[in-house]
Amino acid sequence: MPKSALSGSRIRSLRTARRMGQADLARLAGVSPSYLNLIEHNRRRASPRILDAIARALSIPPEALDESAGDALVEALRAATVRAAPDAPPETDRAEEFVGRFPGWAALLAQLHTRAEGHERTIGRLSDRMAHDPNLSAALHEIVSAVTAVQSTAAILAESEDLEPEWRARFHSNVHADSVRLANAAEALVAYLDTSGEETGLAAPQEELESWLERQGFHVEAVEDPDVRDWGRVTGGQAELASASSRALAEDWLRRAHADARVLPLTQLMPVLSAMFAPGAVFAPEDLARQFGASLAQVFRRLATLPPAAGVPRFGLAVCDGSGTLTFRRPVEGFALPRFGGACPLWPLYQALVQPERPLRALVEFAGRPPTRFVAHAVAGARDPLRFEPPVVWEAAMLLTPASALGAGPQGAGTEGPDEPALALGSSCRICPREACAARREPSIIAA
Amino acid sequence: MAEDGSGAPDSPATGKGAGHGAGRSVLVVEDEPNISEAIRFILRRDGWSVTVMPSGHGALQAVADLAPDLLILDLMLPGVSGLDILRGLRGHPTSAGLPVILLTARGGHAARDMALEAGASLFMAKPFANADLLAAVRQLVGV
Q: Which pairing describes strands B70-74 and B100-104: parallel, antiparallel, or unpaired?
């Protein structure tokens, strides 16, 4: 069952580019010509060992035939095409051939595109900052005011021939005072721009927090210690948390994770959780919530930030605020959480947001290569449920459990096997191959 | 509101009635003292009678009391927006036709459009040339 047409086609184009016969390559790689023919036509998936032998016979690095690497490269090239030449695209239908024949050039092109996108985002952030930064705006206002006073006063001094001595003295002293003020304002502005350039590193605070958590496998040991209170010590000196705002964000995150850990202590939680993934058992986050007196959102957050444990799958988590903006992403293999822009509106996360306090469970199929199934649990509620004063700040959380981790059994969605109907969804419209989707916002850059 | 409360020297030698102003009155609402002092000096030399207010509070009342021939209004005043004052003036029959020059440190299109929409007769970006301001005052009052 051919899933991806990549490595077979790539082998074929590499071979023909070298003017090598199919029989010759088969002999060098130690497979029969008919088997190689099946591989080249993507009717058989070659084992890693055979791919290795073929790569050696073609004198290319084996990773050049790695399907997932190739897939990513092809998608990156398609993205670059849409961005750079939406009206007159190059030979998009031959992108796979290009990747196969010129892996180095293709990688370079993709890398340049990634860098260009990075620059665009930096520019966007900088111009946002120029337009909305109140400090910058106040500094500029101060400078313009001082310049205006200096210009008008100096013009009077320069142009009034019959200026009375007392007025002349007064205007001289005004110009002096304003020039001092101008110098101070300019100095303050330079100092402000200087430090802020160093500080922010131009990464969004949320990205800094997530890369910090990613390095630790999304599990911060300090939150398990009931006595830790000084979160500044935990976030200080961490390379990823370069800016003050990312450290503040991390401290908020840690305080919440710390509170979650008190309600769901590791030593008590892990045995119960492991048992839920034993053969014949049922994974039910609602039972964890009941047993530990936790909210569902707390259970979701806790499950997504546990240390690795045998028999327990890695969970994914997406949290959004009332605007739908993703405020936290804990990625899971097979379900791509978009880093920028809006996510797929079909996510149960957003369905939960329009039905606050109503827990939702759905079997979903993520449009990836290959498509992957997850059981999604989602719930929305007030971020602070004990707050009477407006405004109500809504928050939704969605836990993603790989369907492959759930054994067969009467546990609702996700356990009836591959024929069970699943909600088809994706990452974000731009990189989603589902052409005919009722929720589509913009065309996809990925050919179906 | 102070006619001349800053301890400044007396009015410029030019007497009332001389110059283009011919004793007509201008109200200046501007929080930067050195800018308003320069404006007052320039206009008085041209024969205008000038009153300066350092803040926007009470500006509407001042216009009603003084009935000036022209208002020079700063857009960004502490605690109150020049635009709000302007809208208030335009909503009142006695001041609906008063010529108003709006001064602002923000010279962008958006600020200009907002100013004109709110009813400014003229939008002037800071810094400005004294001669331009004087010419604008003369032209708007029609002297």
A: parallel
B32 to A149: CB separation less than 8 angstroms, yes or no: yes
Give the model's pLDDT for residue A198.
45
Residues 78-117 of B with CB under 8 A from A: 105
Q: In whole angstroms, what is the distance from residue B84 CA to residue A53 CA?
A: 78
Q: Which of A325, A301, A215 is nearest to A252 (CA)?
A: A301
Q: Which of A130, A147, A148 to mutate to test the interface with B (most CBs of B within 10 A)?
A: A148
Q: What is the ipTM of this complex?
A: 0.85
Whether B34 has its CB under 8 Å from any CB of chain A: the answer is yes
Tell whether B60 is covered by a domain. Answer: yes
Can you give the pLDDT at residue A201? 44
> pTM of the entire structure?
0.54
Tell me, yes or no, if B45 comes closer than 8 A to chain A by beta carbon. Answer: yes
**Within 10 A of B61 (CB to CB), how many other CB atoms are there?**
10
Neighbours of A94 (CB within 10 A): 12
Q: End-to-end distance of chain B based on CA atoms, in angstroms?
A: 27
Interface test with B, best of A167, A168, A182 (most B CBs within 10 A): A167
Low-confidence residues of chain B: pLDDT under 50? 1-6, 13-17
B109 in a structural domain = yes
Q: How far is it, in rounded angstroms, from Cα A247 to Cα A209? A: 8
Do A155 and B130 lie within an 8 Å CB cutoff? yes
Residue extents of the structural domains in chain A: 6-115, 133-200, 308-448
* B34 to A177: CB separation less than 8 angstroms, yes or no: yes
- Chain B residues in contact with A145 by the CB 8 A cut-off are 32, 35, 105, 126
What's the CATH code of the domain at B108? 3.40.50.2300
| Ranges of H-type helices in A18-102 | 22-29, 33-40, 48-57, 67-84, 95-101
* Residue B42 sits at the chain A interface (C-beta within 8 Å): yes
Q: What pLDDT does residue B15 have?
A: 45
Query: Which domain covers residue B48, as residue numbers?
Result: 25-141
The total of structural domains in chain B comes to 1
- CB atoms near residue A126 (< 10 Å): 13
Q: For residue A320, report the phi and psi dihedrals to the nearest 5 degrees.
A: -130, 160
Q: What is the pLDDT of residues A160-174, one digit of tens each?
A: 888 899 999 999 999
Q: Low-confidence residues of chain A, pLDDT below 50?
A: 1-5, 197-202, 409-411, 413, 448
Decide if B92 is inside a domain: yes
Instruction: Name which of B13, B38, B39 is nearest A164 (Cβ-Cβ).
Output: B13
Instruction: Kindly state whether residue B9 falls inside one of the protein's structural domains.
Output: no
What pLDDT is recorded for position B4?
Answer: 44
Q: What kind of fold does domain A6-115 have according to CATH?
A: 434 Repressor (Amino-terminal Domain) (1.10.260)
Contact A152 B127 (CB under 8 A): yes
Q: How far is CA A88 from the centre of its chain?
A: 29
Residues in B closer than 8 angstroms to A174, CB to CB, are 34, 37-38
The Cα A300–Cα A280 span in angstroms is 22
